[in-house]
Design a protein that fits this description.
Layout lengths: L29 H6 L3 E2 L2 E4 L6 E5 L3 E2 H4 L6 E8 L5 E9 L3
Antiparallel strand pairs: 1-4, 2-3, 5-6
Amino acid sequence: MVDGEYLKSKLINNGGLNVEFNQTLNLNNVHKLVRKQESIIFEAMDKDIDADDLIGKANPLSFNSLTQDGDQKSIHLELFDNNFKEVGSLEVIIQYL
C-alpha cells in the first residue's frame, strides 16, 4: 500500500509455497511521497472466491531510505500475520529513477 492506495501484482493461480512473480510495478510522484515522509507496505494476499485473506505483511519501508541514489536495492522482507507470527518472506528489488 502506498499513500492509501494499493498496487497489485498479477495473480498466480496454484503458485504453491515459493511463488515467483518477476513483475515490475511503477510508482509515480515518488518525490511527493518522500516530502510527506510516506512509507510503502508490502502485503501478501490469498485470493478466494468470497474474500481475500491476508497471508502476511512486512514492516513499512520509508521512501526516504529508498531514494538516496539511483542504484538498485535488493531488500529481504519478512512477512508477519495478524498475530505477529513470521509466515514467509519477500525479496524485492527497488530502483529510484
